[in-house]
Amino acid sequence: MEVRARAPGKIILSGEHAVVHGSTAVAAAIDLHTYVSFRLHAPSDNDDGLIELELKDFGLAFSWSSQRLRELFSELGSWSPRSCSTECLKVITSLVEELSFPEAKIGLSSGVSAFLYLYTSIVGFRPGKVRVTSELPLASGLGSSASFCVSVSAALLALSGAVYSDNQQNGWLVMRENELELVNKWAFEGEKIIHGKPSGIDNTVSTFGSMIMFRLGELTRLKSSGPLRMLITNTKVGRNTKALVAGVSERAQRHPDAMAAVFTAVDSISKELSAVIESFALDDVSITAKEEKLEELMEMNQGLLQCMGVSHTSIETVLRTTLRYKLASKLTGAGGGGCVLTLLPTLLSSTIVDKVITELEVCGFQCLKAEVGGKGLEICFN
Ligand SMILES: Nc1ncnc2c1ncn2[C@@H]1O[C@H](COP(=O)(O)OP(=O)(O)O)[C@@H](O)[C@H]1O
Ligand SMILES: C[C@@](O)(CCOP(=O)(O)O)CC(=O)O
Ligand SMILES: [Mg+2]
């Protein structure tokens, strides 16, 4: 039997980085996914007993002898989530160092490490094959690492019997709440390997979907019946979340009082932004006033992200460009390049939207239109 899983990427409307330090943040799923398929090899199917990983988008395939992994790892597969120990991480790092990645794709090594941890922890050493494809740009702030960890964890747990399989139902299905929680916990362990110190917001919104307010591991689903249109601009400047998160923590150690004030301000912005979003209603006559509040809050958050040291000249170029059209923008995700969000007010004409997009694309950026606040993780057994 084969199982497939798909998990969405995300945008952070407010609170990135500060959320790692205990502030409230607001995030929403977007309709760009990572897809994972997984099947266990029948004993006769594969004499070598290989555990295989294919990263189709990159034309890369890796395999490990299950016998060798059994000798290297002491822990047996189990469904209860646990953190990767220092010894285990050393073993994984040396296994990944043996692989050859093209120079430009070296960043994938942390994803492969997370995979090895999740596979050996959840499935154990039973040979099998995992295939991955993604619609998300990697390392751009749209949460590709979390959607990778969520979809891999879900597929592994599903075939290991940890989640209910409704073979009668065709097509994509949503897991039960307690199963989603289990997947989310495992995905968080994978994110720790990729990010170092994740807050958990990315894996949580990828697992549960919708638009959420998140603080210290707790999520609140936001109820909004109004539209929220966002333009996503990918500056195509590559960056690494782990390094950016570590940089903010170092700044917080150098200036504890000032940075605590910044994190408190972000907390207030996220709470106010959530309240505005929840006040949206269908055919809202005061929609423009509410959108103006959102724009101001986004601009304030961007200013504080600059204080944290995670903006970038490419991000500033997007801000200047959209401001010429009186549109507010902020970086999303870890910053340092990556993606920028621009609020597209309800009454904004499509002609203006097209003009902004053209101008941004002339700068060499890529504009994406994505549905915001949609479904989370889904699996499929046929
Ligand atoms: N489809 C994938 N296959 C393998 N690794 C992936 C995949 N998607 C994400 N990753 C891992 O996540 C890393 C990017 O994560 P990160 O720096 O947090 O940026 P973001 O989550 O915003 O895309 C990649 O360098 C890679 O290690
Ligand atoms: C910077 C941070 O707030 C979000 C990182 O998102 P991304 O990996 O850049 O998509 C880190 C976190 O919350 O774990
Ligand atoms: Mg990430």
Question: What overall form do the CA principal axes indicate?
Answer: globular
The total number of structural domains is: 2
Rounded average pLDDT: 94
Give the oligomeric state: single chain
* Number of distinct helices: 11
- Structural class, by secondary structure, is alpha+beta
Uncertain runs are none
Q: CATH topology of the largest domain, which one?
A: Ribosomal Protein S5, domain 2
Mind describing the biggest β-sheet? Answer: 8 strands, mixed
Gyration radius from CA atoms, angstroms: 21 Å
**SSE order:** EEEEHHHEHHHEEEHHHHEEHEE
Tell me the name of the CATH class of the largest domain: Alpha Beta
> In total, how many beta strands?
12
Description:
It comes from Dioscorea zingiberensis. Its EC number is 2.7.1.36. This is Mevalonate kinase. Keywords: ATP-binding, Cytoplasm, Kinase, Lipid biosynthesis, Lipid metabolism, Magnesium, Metal-binding, Nucleotide-binding, Steroid biosynthesis, Steroid metabolism, Sterol biosynthesis, Sterol metabolism, Transferase. Pathway: Isoprenoid biosynthesis; isopentenyl diphosphate biosynthesis via mevalonate pathway; isopentenyl diphosphate from (R)-mevalonate: step 1/3. This protein has 382 residues and is of the alpha+beta class. The chain folds into two domains: 228 residues, Ribosomal Protein S5, domain 2; 145 residues, Alpha-Beta Plaits, CATH 3.30.70. Helix content is 42%, strand content 20%. The protein contains eleven helices and twelve strands. Strands 1, 2, 3, 4, 5, 6, 7 and 12 form an eight-stranded mixed β-sheet that branches. Strand 6 and strand 7 form a beta hairpin. Helix 2 packs across helix 3, helix 5 packs antiparallel against helix 6 and helix 8 packs antiparallel against helix 9. The chain starts with a strand and ends with a strand. The model has no long low-confidence stretch (mean pLDDT 94). The site of (3R)-3-hydroxy-3-methyl-5-(phosphonooxy)pentanoic acid has 17 residues, from helix 6 and helix 7.
